[in-house]
Structure formats: structure tokens, C-alpha cells
Design brief:
- The chain is mainly alpha-helical and 339 residues long.
- Helices cover 54% and strands 7% of the residues.
- It has 14 helices and five strands.
- A three-stranded parallel β-sheet has the order 1-2-3.
- Strand 4, helix 9 and strand 5 form a beta-alpha-beta unit.
- The two termini are 31 Å apart.
């Protein structure tokens, strides 16, 4: 692994450990992480503590999915020699930083955060929102600043969380009259959230509309066959609509032959391209993409001791980084010390 003196840009990203990852994760983040590990000092956080903010009723679900998500990382090509994979709950400095930062943000500011407001409505919390969920932006600020990350990949809907992180950074730096903490820039992917195969919502395992990275060839075939196209495209000869057509959304996300995709779009629009042929092309592409990932995943799943060692080593390195930031900030704030 790279040393603590690595001078490349620092990037922090990760996933909640609530279930194995799927094609939506691959399109939105995993593919870019594999590339970014060669140009950035990359930390991947298995966010099990964050997952508890709305899964405290089922901590076993969160616990058992730590290894599942880590296995997915390795299967898609995350290299532990290039990327530090670490477990959030095993980094106590993050919890202490969160507690410190809570003194520098108000409840009203947290309630105004657009991301949190939306998520509260989606989950139907109303006024019964768990305090940990409401304070999630502060915990994320602790995660980002503990690693001194300058780049944080997020979806467009998550950008307000980075804005709030930088507000906390600026307030702390003004308090201590020097720049101990660094601001981060949101990296918004070109591809937004991938819709589920039903076309009605984002891809989600809980909604039964996801294609997991471990999907069998039969599962992939079935998922593609169920995909929504154009309800008015009744005959092969009929002109078809590309916009809102989930099959073309998937082509845009996964097919690197842009000329081929554009030619299919034009053919579909003018008529003469049937949905069966269209879906067969997509299935061929997804089968080719997922087959090697599925095979590698099976190999890593059969070696849980190796995956655990990757997590131990990555978390050890992450602990060094986060505790150094905490010590620096405690000293700058003038907090009492027994040493």
C-alpha cells in the first residue's frame, strides 16, 4: 500500500453495508473507482455505522454485509495495493470528530439540508426521525475531513452534504485561526442513478428491481426481458421512442461503442428495430460484463480469511490517518490532554 506521505489527491468514497452491490453501483461509482485508484490516493469506507442510522432494528443485516460489499469491491477490480478499504465502525476517531463537529452546527441547519429533508420524507419519519439520521451530514463531514479528502464522488442529490461539510470546515478553521481541515470538492458522475429494470424507481435490491453483480446468466436474461421499452412500439416497423426507454438508458450506461448505440437509436426511432433484437444486444453486453465479475466474486467469497485480512490492513492504515487528523485538531482547539 502507499505510504502516508503519498502526495496524490485524496479521494474518499464508500457504501452503506446494507446488502450486496448491483449494476446501479457499478455504473454510478464502482467503475470510476477502479480507474481513480491509479491517479488518486483512494480510501473506500465500508459505512456500517452510517447504515445503522436507519437499520438499528437489524444490526445483524449491517454486520453480515460488511464482507459482502468488500467482496464486491475486490470482484470489480478494486486493488487493495492501490486502494485502502476500511471499516467505519473500527475507526474511533470518526466518532470523536462527529461529536466535536456537532458543537459547530445547529439543528435548524441540519433540517434545512435538502438531501436530509428528502430522505426524511421518503422514509416517512416525519418528527420521529432518528437523531443519528438527522446528524448524518455531520458524521459524513467527520469521515471526509478525517482523511483530509479533497475529492468526494457523490450523486447530484448528495452534493448538499459536501456543501455542509465545507461549512463545518470553514467554521472550525476560523475558530482555530488556521487551516487544519481542508475543503472537499464533489465529483458528480456523468451517469446519474440507474433506474431499476421496472423503470419505476432507482435500482434497489429492496424493491426487487436490481441486477446484482453476482447475477447468474439466467437472472440477467430474465431481468433484461422484463425491462420497460416503449409501450407504443407495437410492431417492429413502428417508429419507437428512445427517451424514457430503459433499455437505451442501460446502453448509455454500459456500452462503450457509442457509434453502435447511436445507430440503434436512429434505427429504433425510424422503425424496423424490434424490442426482442434490442434486448438481445443489451443482454449480450451485460452477460459479457458480469460473467468475469461473477467468477472473481465466487473466488473471493470462497476465501473469507483473505477478505478479512484486506479489511484489517486497510483499517489499520485508515486508523493512522484519521487519528493523526483528530490529534491535530484537538491540539489546535486547545482541548485538555493527559499527555
Amino acid at each position: 500500500m502507499f505510504s502516508l506521505t503519498d502526495n496524490r489527491p485524496v479521494i474518499l468514497t464508500g457504501d452503506r453495508t446494507t446488502g450486496p452491490l448491483h449494476l446501479g453501483h457499478y455504473a454510478g461509482s464502482l467503475k470510476s473507482r477502479v480507474a481513480l485508484q491509479h491517479s488518486h490516493e483512494q480510501f473506500l469506507l465500508l459505512a456500517d455505522t452510517q447504515a445503522l442510522t436507519d437499520n438499528a432494528h437489524d444490526p445483524q443485516k449491517v454486520q453480515r454485509n460488511v464482507l459482502e460489499v468488500a467482496t464486491d469491491y475486490l470482484a470489480v477490480g478494486i486493488d487493495p495495493a492501490l486502494t485502502t478499504i476500511c471499516v467505519q465502525s473500527a475507526l474511533p476517531a470518526l466518532a470523536e470528530l462527529t461529536l466535536l463537529y456537532l458543537n459547530f452546527v445547529t439543528v435548524s441547519r441540519l433540517e434545512r439540508n435538502p438531501t436530509i429533508k428528502t430522505e426524511i420524507q421518503l422514509r416517512g419519519f416525519e418528527r420521529d426521525v432518528p437523531a443519528g439520521f438527522l446528524c448524518y451530514p455531520v458524521a459524513q463531514a467527520a469521515d471526509i475531513t478525517a482523511f483530509k479528502a479533497t475529492v468526494v464522488p457523490v450523486g447530484e442529490d448528495q452534493a448538499p452534504l459536501i456543501e455542509q461539510t465545507n461549512e463545518i470546515v470553514r467554521r472550525l478553521n476560523r475558530q482555530i485561526e488556521r487551516d487544519v481541515l481542508v475543503e472537499a470538492t464533489a465529483m458528480v458522475p456523468a451517469i446519474g442513478r440507474l433506474p431499476g429494470v421496472d423503470g419505476k424507481a432507482k435500482m434497489s435490491k429492496s424493491q426487487g428491481n436490481a441486477i446484482p453483480l453476482s447475477a447468474s446468466s439466467d437472472e440477467i436474461r430474465d431481468a433484461v426481458r422484463r425491462m420497460y421499452t416503449d409501450p407504443d412500439h407495437l410492431r417492429v416497423s413502428d417508429p419507437g421512442k428512445v427517451e424514457g426507454n430503459i433499455v437505451f438508458t442501460y446502453f448509455d450506461a454500459f456500452c462503450e461503442d457509442r457509434q453502435f448505440v447511436e445507430e440503434m437509436k436512429e434505427h429504433y426511432r425510424r422503425g424496423g428495430l424490434g424490442d426482442v433484437t434490442l434486448k438481445r444486444h443489451l443482454e449480450d453486453g451485460l452477460q459479457a460484463l458480469l460473467a468475469p465479475i461473477r467468477e472473481r466474486r465466487a473466488l473471493y467469497a470462497a476465501e473469507p480469511d483473505y477478505v478479512m485480512e484486506v479489511l484489517r490492513e486497510g483499517t489499520r492504515k485508515a486508523r493512522q490517518r484519521t487519528e493523526a487528523t483528530l490529534a491535530e485538531l484537538r491540539s489546535a482547539l486547545g482541548l485538555f490532554s493527559l499527555t
